[in-house]
Amino acid sequence: MGFDLAFALSSVPTILGAVGTTLCVALVSCIGAAAIGFFFEMVRRAGGIAGLTVGFVIDFIRSTPVLAWLYFLYFVLPFYGIRLGSMTVGVMGLSLYYSGYLAEVFKAGIDAIPKGQSEAARALSLSRRDAVIHVIAPQMLRNIAAPLGNYFVSILKATPYLAVLAVPEMLGRAFDIASETYRYTEPLVVAGLIFLALALVISHGVKRLERRLLAVGAR
Amino acid sequence: MSAQSDTIVDIQGLNKWFGALHVLKDVDLTVACGSRVVVCGPSGSGKSTLIRCINGLESYQQGALRLAGTTLGLNARETASARRQTGMVFQSFNLFPHLTVLSNCTLALRRVAGRSRGEAQDIAMAHLEKVRIPEKAMSYPGQLSGGQQQRVAIARALCLNPRIMLFDEPTSALDPEMIKEVLDVMVALARDGMTMVCVTHEMGFAREVADQVVFMDGGCILDRAPARDFFGSAGHPRSRLFLDTILKH
């Protein structure tokens, strides 16, 4: 079975047509995962029963397959009267699943700030709120820029899972072409190359961002 | 019991535990306004913990610590407002690495003292002049040497116009050639009449500026004396031993 370049090229526009959906799902899921993850980490940090519960939830999420979450949200929730569109379920599933990982990223980002920083803030009589806004958060952002970018790429690569919900993302589109023509190599290779290109562009952007953040007041 | 108006720190029977570890044992110490107290002792003697109690960074379990007439630890709001009378300088500088030298100094002026940007910058620049580093106002801490960073940290602490300055081993993390520039700033501050409590091993500094030298070991104050007596022949045998050890080299 050879590689038909002309056929490969002819499949590009169709597959590229889904790049918007893929990027959009990845971006919204990443923002959702970051928001939920940050909230989880704040609650866990506060401790108490709520903190312990959230800690368990984070561990639970991280120990289950993402596909299980998608199936659960899509096929189980309707039994309880909650009916959501496939796109919504896809974004919710990815957001929830990755929030567990991003909570860990935030934790590491905050833990890496030397204790002396918040002590200096207290010694200067800054309020807790001012200390978080002006001292802790900016330094945390610098610490998490790289892992956050990596997770964005991970989420991007997880979007093909949404094929099981019939969300029209890139790999699903490529597979549709393949099933119609019985030629699998070309569409799958094209989809793979587009994923590779996206991942490279994003990691490069993250590296530049990180370098800029680190350049500010390099220790 | 009312503290005399010329006493800024009044510590009575202070006890503190870290878990099972008894780190401060029945510590009594008063610091008069305008006086300079040097606290020395071997590491692990509780001297850093003591100075961190004075501005409420550490809590205590027994006894009383009055700062500027307020008993710390009873009421969070009162403790916070008493803390505003203090400025603290840490061993590891603890400048904010993502802010310029100037912003390090203006942050509390703007957020705590409510000064405008212009006012805050004027005050900050005046203090940066005082520590002889105004030309670095726009630099980031990472671009400065340790000695320069510590001088900025002193300027930052002075910005809120504290009545007492607390120094927690300010020169211990510095290379030897940078110790002097920091000590010079501290001596100048002492000459200006600033009330100071300083944990340090710099006995030359203690001899030069201290009114009172306090020697701690094992969480207790073993010896306290005016500087000339402390360095003279009198004093507790344990502090004599300590002095002999650190002055020998």
Question: Which terms summarize this structure?
Answer:
heterodimer; A: 219 residues; mainly alpha; 9 helices; B: 249 residues; alpha/beta; six-stranded mixed beta sheet; four-stranded antiparallel beta sheet; 37% helix; globular
Can you walk through the features of this model?
The complex is a heterodimer of chains A (219) and B (249). By secondary structure, chain A is mainly α. Chain A is built from 9 helices and no strands. Chain B contains 9 helices and 10 strands. Chain B starts with 6 loop residues before the first strand and ends with a helix. In chain B, helix 3 crosses helix 4, helix 4 (117-130) crosses helix 5 and helix 5 (146-158) runs parallel beside helix 6 (176-191). Chain B has 249 residues and is α/β, with parallel strands linked by helices. In chain B, the strands form 2 sheets. A 6-stranded mixed β-sheet of chain B has the order 6-7-8-3-9-10, sandwiched between helices. Chain B has helices spanning 47-54, 76-83, 101-111, 117-130, 146-158, 176-191, 203-209, 227-231, 237-247; strands spanning 7-18, 21-32, 36-40, 62-67, 70-71, 86-89, 164-168, 195-199, 212-217, 220-226. Chains A and B meet through helix 6 and helix 7 of A and strand 6 and helix 3 of B.
